[in-house]
Design goal:
The structure holds three protein chains of three kinds.
Chain A (H helix, E strand, L loop, with lengths): L3 E4 L3 H6 L5 E4 L16 E4 L9 E4 L2 E5 L4 H6 L5 H7 L5 H4 L4 H7 L7 H6 L3 E6 L2 E6 H6 L6 E8 L3 E7 L9 E7 L3 E8 L3 E8 L6 H10 L13 H23 L4
Chain B lengths: L4 E8 L2 E8 L4 H8 L18 E4 L2 E4 L12 E3 L13 H8 L9 H13 L6 H7 L11 H14 L3 H6 L16
Parallel strand pairs in B: 1-5
Antiparallel strand pairs in B: 1-2, 3-4, 3-5
Helix pairs in contact in B: 2-5, 3-5
Chain C lengths: L14 H6 L5 H4 L5 E7 L5 E6 L2 H5 L3 E6 L41 E7 L2 H12 L2 E5 L6 H4 L15 E9 L2 H4 L6 E8 L12 E7 L2 E6 L4 H12 L6 E4 L16 H10 L5 E4 L2 H7 L5 E10 L5 E13 L7 H13 L5 E9 L13 H18 L4 H8 L6 E2 L4 E2 L4 H13 L1 H7 L7 E9 L13 E8 L5 E5 L8 H14 L5 E3 L19 H28 L6 E4 L2 E4 L4 E5 H10 L8 E7 L8 E10 L4 E11 L7 H20 L31 E5 L22 H13 L10 H10 L10
Parallel strand pairs in C: 1-11, 9-10, 13-14, 19-20, 26-27
Antiparallel strand pairs in C: 1-4, 2-5, 3-4, 6-14, 7-12, 8-9, 8-11, 12-13, 15-16, 17-25, 18-19, 18-24, 21-22, 22-23, 25-26
The chains are: A alpha+beta, B alpha+beta, C alpha+beta.
């Protein structure tokens, strides 16, 4: 259990305090749980930080502060529908009032509610590292070991076709897979969180038509390191699920946009 | 090695109060130990069961994963606050009693508070939306059925739809439209 | 006797206090200054503790004492089951548990304890202590049939092949009977999974010294039994302990076992009577309390062309976990029920209860019958299909007939419960129309509807002692308090008891008050609640005691009114003269007069024990309608109806609540719940609320309950058990409905997506193998 708690007043103060033995505390749904795996001497609470919880439309983009809660996202008029859908995957409303988008990204859980959709749409993260402010594609961020940056905001495109699906045994349980497909001019990008394996992304090109059999065969044979039999399902089951979900989502996108994949 | 302490000023059940707390303490601990508001229950301490739910600034939160220091300046309501000074019960509390929505009673405080927030919103929720809004609470005694009745009826009554409210109990067998893919 | 309250949906007496948040459970009552106990659990599935180095843990600020298994000066092995004690040694429960052991037999066994001033210090010390344990690890076994093999690790010396219970039933001659020509044979293996009770209030108890005794406040269903077992576990006189049971947040059978009361009491005594509290965290509740037995069944039936049974065999292997707890009772119940539910002249049955290095299985709502009903009713459906017969008709033909009498238990089926329940349920859910509609479906999404029944009885006569005691005490204003050994655990026992007393004595319900919290110092002896015994057994002692009280009241009324007792009655709190209906005096005036009179003052009270020597069948059924999305391998429950014949329904609202609760447990049992262990390490995998998939609000449809009321002739108020029956038929009904929808009949639980995926793939319903 952490020994010290710092209430940062703004992002600069928070990043100043960030040393190796300190961890950021956003909504608390991950860190404050009994049995949480986050170990730190010091917790830097971001609850009172100014400027981190606004949502702004900017042309075709929407900027979302990292401390916006899931419920803020659901209730905002400016947030695109696909992101609201992903936020609603967290069934417990009491938890949605606390969990933050920044926290969900930084936790990098293999059953993450938001990472698949954010990766599929190529969301941009605003990061603060020391004095340096930078913008980074979320797909790069999650593949790096990066504990020292503070996510200050997330930018998502507004007009993009997205379909998402989440599979869990009951409404509250951890998901076996959470997948999103986003269609852009060139191709369909798929991102999926596979429990106990991680976040995977695929680009499905627009040449030829995608059939269910082809999708299932693709995932059956795709080299996915670390996909294993565990209590969430056998390897075969997970691969099968990936296949039919991918097909389903693509079918949905086609129906909505009239385009072929 | 000293523990860190801080004073927390907030409003609890309509009354302004202040208390010194360990900065690592959860809101559940502060409410139960320092204010003896024992209706706030500990069921899992990981934010899964909802038995610790309280209303903060009009919204329901799991107090077991909410730090006490975050309550600074906030308006907090626990179940004790819903009862009037002379023992008058709110409509949602009475509905829980009338519909048999309480058995062992351990999950009830959390449920009643979230239900209170739902009926206060003035919105009409569909059945699916009601289920989703209440899914942060686990109950092993009631199968959620009578709780559903209590919340739906109260919501409808507040919206002036008394006749519709009286029909809720008899709508147990549900008609589903043609098969559609599972969502 | 009036019937003013019995049969009415009276609001439960504690509902208002619970809705206000005023009710105090164990943790709410415990003083803040209590020392906190955290138990040190074994992290090996089978082994010997060689040493535990407590030095570092003791240094943590706030730690008061660290205990280990080596601190036990005397080893008193004790039984933990919530059974009435038997004075016959052959019938006593197996005493194989120690307060702390150096020979852990499952991952999670109790090998030590940390006592500290606050929770943070306790858990810090515990994590340090966990690393300071040196084990000699031994091979372990997790499955029942494996544990019975010759070379399996032996858990308890007195039980070779790890078999702690074995029983057989034989009727007629199976070998001869199967020679009859023209028989169809149906054989099946059925398997159920371990699940946990998940009551929202975790088990908790606290203890402190008072005089030369120790007081224990515990979230339990069985306070009097706890007292006996704490005495046995500590080797002290049973009267040295006082057990208090406050309001509890659900029990469901987990708290029908003695859990940590002995350890808590022992620690308090070691510390000179200090107040100590043990609150079991949720993760530990899953694996260190009790779970439901996982049972594997092998059933074979031979049927004649007309669909009747010529012969049947039954074998079951019951996985008991590492300690005996309820011993062989769960398995035996299933074995004995089998030949009763579908009677057949030729039957061979055998069942084993087996020790394994897993969490201890004990009582859980249904006590072996949800498992057995699953096996029975899956098999029945399989038989009906093999014969090409309609599943409902097949059941009607073969079920226990009206008038059936079971010689051992003296149970008798007095009414046509099964058919009445089937008829009612079929009508409510629209069974016959839907069966027609769902024939010959094609397409990816299909629906199915099915019915299943079950076997259950009420209380435990003649297997064990059945007794209930009641005390009623009248105040000066005529109002009464009553005490019973049958505990209120959320089911509403207090309320129905009050209704019975009000009607039998003849006073208004608002003058009857339960003393809800049992205290072994004050409450008359009772064994608690389990086996759906509550309403049935307390009814006897209530009626007897109420009648005794009424007699005393009328004697006193005679004194003050000069009227003969045989012309007097009590109606609605008024003493009336039966001959002309004249109101003579109120019950309050009578009580006041009788207490304060200078001619024969008496405090009007009554107390009696009733030993129950009867039992009652309590049957019913479940209709389930499901929708199966074949490619997604998901089954969704659309509608569910349970119909039960529990005799006269004392309180329809509370009875419905019991059915809903049972349905809810049955739905989780059928579709998503399962406790799992890692086969390489014996470590539990999903002992927390996120990974253990208990149903939430979104996972249930609306639940429907209906009743058929056949007044039970043996009962004091015409009632039969209801607490457990509703869980039993749900899982098989869902399995059979999925079968009707898809043609795939699965023989295991839960019917989760990965199970369906495996079954559908094997059957070729979905195809995930494509040539490149």
């Amino acid at each position: 259990m952490a020994k010290t708690l710092l209430m940062a007043k703004n992002a600069a103060e928070a990043i100043d305090a960030k040393i190796a033995s300190a961890a950021f505390l956003a909504g608390g749904t991950e860190v404050n749980r009994l049995g949480s795996t986050v170990e730190a001497e010091t917790l830097i609470s971001l609850k009172k930080c100014e400027g981190l919880n606004s949502i702004k439309k900017d042309g075709d983009k929407v900027h979302i502060g990292s401390m916006c809660t899931f419920q803020d996202i659901v209730e905002s008029e400016d947030v695109p529908a696909y992101l609201k859908e992903a936020a609603l995957f967290m069934a417990s409303r009491t938890k949605r009032n606390m969990a933050t988008i920044g926290g969900n990204i930084a936790a990098r859980r293999s059953d993450s509610y938001l990472l698949p959709v954010l990766c599929a749409v190529d969301a941009e993260l605003s990061l603060l590292t020391g004095d340096l402010e930078e913008s980074k594609n979320i797909n790069l961020y999650i593949n790096e070991e990066n504990d020292d940056s503070l996510i200050t905001g997330i930018t998502v495109p507004e007009s993009v076709q997205v379909a998402s699906k989440r599979y869990a045994n009951t409404a509250q349980s951890h998901a076996v897979i959470t997948m999103s497909a986003a269609s852009t001019a060139e191709c369909v990008k798929l991102a999926v969180a596979v429990k106990n394996t991680g976040i995977l992304s695929f680009n499905l090109s627009s040449s030829g038509r995608l059939t269910e059999e082809a999708a299932v065969a693709f995932f059956k044979n795709y080299e996915i390191k670390d996909i294993e039999d565990d209590m969430f399902g056998s390897v075969d089951y997970k691969r099968y699920l990936l296949g039919i979900t991918a097909y389903d989502l693509c079918k949905q996108l086609i129906a909505e946009s009239g385009k072929e994949v | 090695m000293d523990n860190q302490y801080k004073v927390v000023h907030c409003t609890i059940n309509g009354k302004e109060v202040s208390q010194i707390v360990d900065v690592r303490a959860s809101l559940t601990d502060m409410l139960r130990n320092d204010y003896r508001l024992t209706s706030v229950k500990k069921g899992c301490e990981v934010g899964e069961c909802g038995a610790c739910t309280v209303i903060i600034n009009g919204e329901s939160f799991n107090s077991c994963i909410y730090l006490a220091v975050w309550a600074e300046g906030k308006e907090i309501w626990t179940l004790e606050g819903l009862t009037g000074p002379g023992g008058e019960l709110s409509d949602i509390q009475q509905a829980f009693i009338d519909e048999g929505a309480i058995q062992c009673g351990f999950c009830s405080p959390g449920f009643i508070l979230t239900s209170w927030e739902i009926v206060n919103s003035g919105r009409e929720y569909t059945d699916d939306e009601l289920r989703k809004a209440l899914s942060g609470h686990l109950c092993r005694c009631t199968g959620y059925e009578n709780i559903f009745r209590a919340v739906k009826k109260t919501m409808l009554r507040r919206l002036g739809k008394n006749e519709e409210a009286e029909l809720v109990n008899s709508q147990g067998i549900t008609e589903y439209p043609d098969p559609m893919p599972f969502k | 006797m009036s019937n003013k309250y019995i049969g009415q949906a009276v609001k439960r007496l504690d509902a208002r206090d619970k809705a206000m948040g005023r009710i105090k459970y164990a943790d709410d009552l415990c003083d803040k200054g209590a020392l906190i106990i955290r138990v040190l659990h074994s992290t090996v599935a089978n082994g010997i503790v060689k040493s535990i180095d407590t030095t570092e843990a003791e240094k943590v600020p706030g730690v008061v004492k660290v205990f280990t298994c080596f601190d036990l000066k005397e080893k008193h092995y004790y039984p933990t089951a919530g059974h009435p004690w038997s004075t016959d040694p052959a019938h006593q429960d197996i005493a194989d548990r120690l307060i702390m052991t150096d020979r852990p037999l499952f991952y999670g066994d109790d090998i030590g304890a940390v006592v500290a001033e606050n929770e943070v210090a306790a858990s810090q010390a515990l994590s340090i202590l966990e690393k300071a344990v040196v084990y000699e690890e031994l091979p372990f076994v997790l499955e029942a049939q494996e544990a019975m093999e010759e070379d399996a690790p032996l858990l308890h010396e007195k039980y070779p092949n790890n078999v702690l219970g074995h029983s057989e039933v034989h009727m007629g001659n199976v070998e001869e009977a199967i020679k009859e020509p023209g028989l169809t044979k149906v054989e099946g293996w059925y398997e159920t999974q371990p699940v946990q009770h998940c009551h929202i209030e975790n088990f908790i108890c606290y203890a402190y010294g008072e005089g030369d005794r120790t007081v224990i406040v515990s979230s339990t269903q069985i306070p009097h039994i706890v007292r006996r077992v704490v005495g046995q576990a500590t080797g002290m006189d049973w009267g040295k302990f006082r057990i208090i049971k406050p309001y509890i947040g659900g029990g469901f059978g987990n708290k029908q076992d003695v859990l940590y009361e002995p350890l808590t009491a022992w620690i308090s005594i070691q510390l000179g009577g200090r107040l100590v509290k043990l609150d079991v965290p949720r993760e530990e509740t899953f694996i260190c309390n009790r779970i439901r037995h996982a049972i594997k069944y092998h059933i074979t039936s031979w049927m004649r062309p007309d669909g009747s049974f010529a012969a049947r065999t039954f074998k079951a292997w019951c996985n008991n976990g590492a300690y005996s707890s309820h011993c062989h009772a769960i398995a035996a119940k299933g074995l004995n029920a089998f030949p009763q539910l579908y009677p057949c002249d030729n039957f061979d049955g055998e069942t084993w209860t087996v020790y394994t290095n897993r969490s201890v299985a004990g009582a859980m709502r249904g006590y072996g019958m949800p498992q057995a009903s699953y096996a029975f009713e899956c098999h029945t459906e399989d038989c009906a299909r093999a014969m090409g017969m309609d599943p409902l008709e097949f059941r009607r033909q073969n079920l226990m007939p009206v008038g059936y009498y079971h010689a051992f238990s003296k149970n008798e089926l007095y009414s046509d419960s099964f058919n009445q329940c089937f008829d009612k349920g079929a009508e409510i859910i629209g069974y016959f129309d839907k069966v027609e509609k769902y024939k010959n479906q094609t397409g990816d999404i299909r629906r199915g509807i099915a019915v299943s029944t079950y076997w259950y009885n009420t209380a435990v006569y003649p297997i064990a002692l059945e007794t209930s005691s009641c005390r009623i005490v009248m105040n000066q204003d005529g109002s009464v308090q009553f005490q019973l050994g049958e505990t209120e655990i959320g089911q509403g026992a207090d309320t129905v008891a009050a209704q019975m007393i009000a009607d039998t004595v003849g006073i208004p319900l608002d003058m009857v008050h339960p003393m809800s919290c049992q205290d072994t110092d004050i409450t008359p002896f009772g064994t608690g609640v389990y086996a759906s015994r509550g309403t049935y057994t307390l009814g006897f002692s209530i009626k007897q005691t109420s009648m005794l009280l009424k007699e005393k009241i009328l004697e006193a009324a005679h004194q003050f009114t000069r009227m003969p007792v045989f012309n007097l009655d009590i109606v609605d709190g008024m003493i009336i003269r039966k001959t002309d209906g004249r109101e003579l005096m109120t019950i309050g005036e009578l009580a006041l007069s009788k207490l304060y009179t200078t001619e024969g003052s008496q405090h009007l009270t009554a107390e009696s024990t009733y030993q129950i020597k009867s039992n009652a069948y309590s049957f019913g059924c479940c209709f389930a309608e499901v929708e199966v999305d074949i490619p997604m391998c998901r089954a969704r429950l659309l509608n569910i109806v349970n119909v039960h014949d529990c005799g006269q329904v004392i309180n329809p609202m509370l009875a419905e609540g019991q059915v809903h609760g049972g349905q809810s447990m049955g739905i989780g049992y059928a579709l998503s719940e399962k406790l799992m262990w890692d086969t390489k390490t014996g470590k539990p995998l999903n002992n927390n609320l996120l990974d253990y998939k208990m149903s939430s609000f979104m996972d249930h449809p609306r639940l429907n309950a209906a009743f058929v009321e056949n007044y039970e002739p043996t009962s004091a108020y015409g009632t039969k058990g209801l607490g457990e029956p509703p869980v039993c038929p749900v899982a098989p009904a869902i399995r059979n409905a999925i079968g009707q929808a898809t043609g795939i009949y699965i023989n295991e639980l839960p019917l989760s997506p990965h199970t369906l995926f495996r079954e559908f793939t094997e059957a070729g319903l979905i195809d995930d193998s494509f040539a490149e």
